[in-house]
Amino acid sequence: MRIYQGDVWGIETAGWSIESDETCLTLCPADVDAALQISAYLKLEGSVTTEELLEGARERAPQGTPVKQVVCGPFVGYRCEYDDHEEDLIWRVWQLGRGQTELFITYNTSPEHRDKHRAVVDWMLSTLTEGRGEFDGA
User: Fold this and answer.
1) How many other β-carbons are positioned within 10 Å of the β-carbon of residue 40?
2) pLDDT tens digits, one per residue of 66-107
3) Which domains are present in the chain?
């Protein structure tokens, strides 16, 4: 099922449960404790630059974590992955942009489920599309 958030972007949900609030959209699989969260931001003047995306990705990644360039549908940006030993979670983090829209996306789950939904999450992000109207919130 394809959903749209704020008429800014859309994504296929792979049948995951959907929760939304004023800051983000959360998608969760039924079989493990995990969450894919997407927040959107609008740059008021000019387009989001690759330099801004890279800087944001590096700021969010623990020091020394490799940051890789990615393409997700029409959005481009950067991704990193790391273990949070204090919280006992793995994190995959994307900083994406297209035009004036910036997407901040995280996926987290326990280390034992690290790869359980890797292909599904990658597929969902490959289905990202631009929205169809004016930006009206996160």
Assistant:
1) 21
2) 999 999 999 999 999 999 999 999 999 999 999 999 999 999
3) 2-130 (3.40.1000.10)
